[in-house]
Design brief:
The chain is built from 8 helices and 3 strands. It is of the alpha+beta class. A hairpin with a 6-residue loop joins strand 2 and strand 3. The relative contact order is 0.09.
Length: 191
């Protein structure tokens, strides 16, 4: 992986971190291509050095880092650093860096699916009930009023039977949008 190659080049030439970006020679020696080129600002270089120190002191370090590439895309990397040998004065450190951007995107999507109704984009029943319990506990704890409103669409089955489920889905989507627009930021709607 190109990021791993760049990491190796940076570790072999730690002075390149101070500049905030890899010099062309280090990029070339790491076999980098323009498509895999990452921009490392000074603060990230300092963080890498701190991570290295932690790994040296503790024998192992694992972290996730968001790195902006030159094309302005943000990639998430999982980095593991470990000591291979400390026979001499300077420890020999190894590391693995993996681009986990897609995995993080999928995790976020799964979290969203676990909490949001796919049709209306409202919190699903489970998430709504959890949030409702939190708000009820807060109202009891602080002695503040709490309101709950339940909305039922009369004869909604007739809409589905007469016009089809696609029209019924559209009615639910429009109604949920109206509810969301009418509520304050702190209010919770759910399906």
């Amino acid at each position: 992986n190109a990021f791993e190659a760049e990491t190796v080049a940076r570790r072999m030439k730690p002075d390149t971190v101070k500049t905030g970006a890899m010099p062309e020679t280090a990029r070339g020696s790491a076999g980098m291509t323009e498509n895999h080129n990452a921009n490392f600002p000074n603060d990230l270089g300092k963080k890498f050095m701190e991570d290295d120190r932690y790994a040296i002191e503790n024998g192992y370090y694992k972290t996730e880092e968001n790195i902006q590439h030159l094309d302005n895309s943000i990639h998430t990397y999982e980095t593991q650093k470990f000591i291979i040998s400390q026979n001499g004065k300077d420890p020999l450190m190894g590391g693995i860096a993996m681009d986990i951007t897609e995995r993080k995107r999928l995790e976020d999507e799964l979290k969203r699916q676990a909490h949001i109704d796919y049709l209306t984009d409202l919190p699903n029943r489970r998430h709504f009930m959890v949030q409702g319990e939190v708000e009820l506990s807060r109202a009891i704890r602080y002695g503040t009023p709490l309101s709950l409103m339940m909305l039922d669409i009369d004869f909604f089955k007739n809409v589905n039977d007469t016009y089809g489920h696609q029209v019924g889905d559209t009615v639910l989507q429009v109604l949920s949008k109206i509810c969301q627009d009418a509520l304050r930021q702190v209010d919770i709607a759910g399906r």
